[in-house]
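Dear colleagues,

As part of the handover before I leave the project, I'm documenting each prediction I ran so the next person doesn't have to rerun anything. This entry is a single chain, and its sequence is reproduced below.
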Amino acid sequence: MNDNSGDDPAQLSLGNIIANLPAVRAAKKANTTSRVHRRLIEPIEKMGRPPKLTPHQQKEAIKRRDQGEETLADIAHSYNVSAATISRLTT
């Protein structure tokens, strides 16, 4: 009987896998943990509908509204939004 069973590549890899299972599990757990931590740290995307006006347009509309020379409807028409959208803008 030939006792070269330790040199068989299939048995070596299986043996290595079995021997390294705790290390593999620990690495997988660390990887999963780091992904969870990254998701918690990364900024969360805003939910919901995107704004109709850019931040610059919002500032302009607020300035025009606060001057009081134009109606909300006139300001809204220039940005192609409703008067209610202009009235909801805050400083």
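The chain has five helices and no strands. The longest helix spans residues 21-41.

All the best with the project,
I.
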